[in-house]
């Protein structure tokens, strides 16, 4: 009897097991995370020009007299203070000239004392009617001539004294010696550039603009500046100065870019790049990783507000280093998949996240 019931019990137990399995909850489908971005203005539409950070004011310093350089007291790149001596000329000649002028002053003073005494004596004699009026007038003229001569010699002495002081070249204000153009023993003329001083204060960027496109640049035009020491940050600026003539060697026009966004951490001599907006409509751009193609047609995966994907054909421009301009097919408010586009398919539902892996709610307008 037991042997008959055993084969009947096994099928029944299997039925109960299958029924029990049928009542279990089905596992939930896990949505695939997908990094999304919005199209940005294409960087390729901005012309960039390399430049160098310079001081707003860079006066050329020179001696006011000529002579032989006897001392050079600072080096190129050295920081200096206002009125600090930078270089000296051989003072022998100016000292001799000063001594000669001092002696002339003493002689003129002695002559003035003599002619003054003569004038006073002739005046007394004229009052006593012992000399004529013409003789007194002659003595008076000699006195006035001596007085004028003394003033002249004193003025020449002041000039000689100043020239003795001009033998020492001093910094007009605080700054950095940007360029040195003389050596000890060199003979320089008055006004010949000895040093170029980059004064403390405002900083600018010096760039060179091409001759063929110079007409589209104007003073006050807004630009953006990127320092090589801070490649991920751009600073607002404007074209402050444009050279009226091209450089005879490079055939480019020098331009100075002033910062307009407050204090900028720009140091003298730093490399920089200036971005100037190109003419025309600014297209959008997406990362290169967001673009795919099939049968010669480029497309991106656009994310709908319900987090589903739609294949969107686009017309693109020239490829950049990291992005590609999109000429048609997208709007600035669209969201597109930025990576992993080769494993996606039409209508797939994803979980949008940003570059920091934070969930992006596409239904909320940015």
UniProtKB/TrEMBL annotation:
GO MF: efflux transmembrane transporter activity
Residues covered by the CusB-like beta-barrel domain: 207-260
Domain Multidrug resistance protein MdtA-like barrel-sandwich hybrid: 64-197
Top-level taxon of origin: Bacteria
Coiled coil: 98-156
UniProtKB keywords: Coiled coil, Signal
Pfam families, per the entry: Beta-barrel_RND_2, BSH_RND, HH_MFP_RND
Signal peptide: 1-19
Domain Multidrug resistance protein MdtA-like alpha-helical hairpin: 98-158
Entry keyword Transport: no
Recorded GO CC terms: efflux pump complex
Family in the record: Belongs to the membrane fusion protein (MFP) (TC 8.A.1) family.
Protein name, per record: Efflux RND transporter periplasmic adaptor subunit
């Amino acid at each position: 009897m037991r042997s008959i019931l055993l084969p009947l019990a096994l099928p029944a137990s299997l039925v109960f097991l299958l029924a029990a399995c049928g009542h279990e909850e089905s596992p939930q489908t896990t949505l695939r995370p997908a990094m999304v971005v919005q199209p940005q203005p294409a960087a390729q539409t901005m012309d960039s020009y390399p430049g160098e950070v310079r001081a707003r004011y860079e006066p050329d310093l020179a001696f006011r007299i000529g002579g032989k350089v006897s001392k050079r007291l600072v080096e190129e790149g050295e920081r200096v203070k206002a009125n600090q001596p930078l270089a000296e000329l051989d003072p022998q000649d100016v000292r001799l000239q000063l001594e000669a002028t001092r002696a002339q002053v003493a002689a003129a003073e002695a002559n003035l004392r003599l002619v003054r005494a003569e004038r006073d004596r002739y005046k007394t004699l004229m009052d006593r009617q012992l000399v004529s009026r013409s003789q007194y007038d002659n003595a008076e003229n000699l006195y006035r001539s001596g007085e004028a001569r003394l003033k002249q010699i004193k003025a020449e002495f002041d000039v000689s004294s100043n020239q003795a002081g001009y033998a020492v070249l001093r910094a007009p204000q605080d700054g950095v010696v940007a360029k040195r153009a003389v050596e000890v023993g060199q003979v320089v003329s008055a006004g010949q550039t000895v040093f170029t001083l980059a004064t403390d204060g405002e900083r600018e960027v010096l760039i060179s603009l091409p001759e063929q496109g110079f007409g589209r640049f104007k003073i006050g035009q807004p630009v953006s500046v990127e320092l090589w020491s801070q490649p991920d940050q751009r600073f607002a600026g404007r074209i402050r100065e444009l050279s009226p003539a091209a450089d005879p060697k490079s055939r480019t026009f020098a331009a100075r870019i002033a910062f307009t966004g407050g204090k900028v951490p720009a140091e003298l001599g730093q490399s920089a790049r200036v971005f100037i907006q190109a003419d025309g409509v600014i297209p959008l751009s997406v990362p290169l990783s967001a673009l795919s193609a099939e049968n010669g047609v480029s497309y991106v995966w656009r994310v709908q507000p319900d987090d589903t994907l739609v294949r969107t054909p686009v017309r693109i421009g020239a490829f950049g280093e990291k992005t590609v301009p999109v000429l048609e097919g997208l709007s600035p408010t669209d969201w597109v998949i930025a990576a992993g586009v080769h494993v996606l398919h039409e209508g797939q539902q994803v979980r949008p996240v940003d570059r920091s892996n934070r969930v992006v709610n596409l239904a909320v307008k940015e």
